[in-house]
Amino acid sequence: MPIPATSALCSIFTLLIAGSPIFYSPTPRGFCSNCCQIKERDDVKFMLYTRKNPFKAQNLYLSDDKRLRKSNFNFNHPLVIYLHGFSESATSERQSSQEIKDAFLKNGTYNVILIDWSPLTAVPWYTNSVDNLPIAARYMARFIRFLVQKGFPVKDIHLIGFSLGAEVAGFIGQQLQEWSILLPRITGLDPALPLFEDGSPNRRLGPNDALFVDIIHTDGGILGNPEAMGHVDFYPNGGHALQPGCARQEIANNRWLGILSCSHQRAWEYFIESVHYPMAFPANRCEPSKLFGTCRDGGNGKAFMGMGADKRLRGKFFLDTKGESPYGRSNPLGSIGL
């Protein structure tokens, strides 16, 4: 029988590992005999940020019309929905969610909703997190359907996920299509590899999950999936570890364990830079090859990785980056403080 969610065993604790916060739970969530009960309303939070409230989130809830109307949600502004990865939280500074949110609000009048599902992605329960993906994704999809039913135009939704969050995005896209809602764009930032190796398109993010699916691979074969998964797949620096600057950066900050995650995190760091400057990462087409990362001809502007990706693009593309911010070789802005 599942453990009641109110038990102390179901608490979430923050640990600092390699200088970064990691979210830990002594007991997994799920439906096993020793699992904590999943409470969707508590375990999955929809946190709205706009230029009117860039730092303090307004929590939205499924089917709560009154809360939606009283919030700063603007039906005339585009919507970005972001899903963090395993062991992350949507509220932690210097992690992907807050950095993504800040980038969008600095560059446009967006509604940004960060989905905090950290109770379902706490370490060390990765297998349980994967098992719970369909449940979490259905609840998230119901929330998106709620916004659409209230009149928000589907064409203005951009769903973005990092690592395990990218895989959830695929499940969300699949679920929404069962309700005749097709998302215009899903961006996968180094989608997770562990337990997604079988390649079944209905068990991971794939090109059928939205009108346009673009992928950035940075840690292929380790934490990230190296396989082409979208309409267009970008492989900066070959798409695998170590990404330029990772070892030097982590050793300099005495974060040896950070070397393991640095290349994985580069996916969202590159994407953030592309939000600030959509043409920062020009790329060239890579023809299919058993050895990914073999057509090393730099980048001459035939395509752009990240926010500026052309929705007509198809295939694999390759590019080189620099080892420190600004990473893009065509970024004229100088450092943007990543």
TrEMBL record:
GO molecular function: lipase activity; serine hydrolase activity
Chief location bin: secreted
Signal peptide: 1-19
Record-annotated Lipase domain positions: 40-327
Subcellular location: Secreted
Cellular component, GO annotation: extracellular space
Source species, domain of life: Eukaryota
Swiss-Prot/TrEMBL keywords: Secreted, Signal
Key word Isomerase present: no
Biological process (GO), any one: lipid catabolic process
Similarity comment: family membership: Belongs to the AB hydrolase superfamily. Lipase family.
The protein's name: Inactive pancreatic lipase-related protein 1 isoform X2
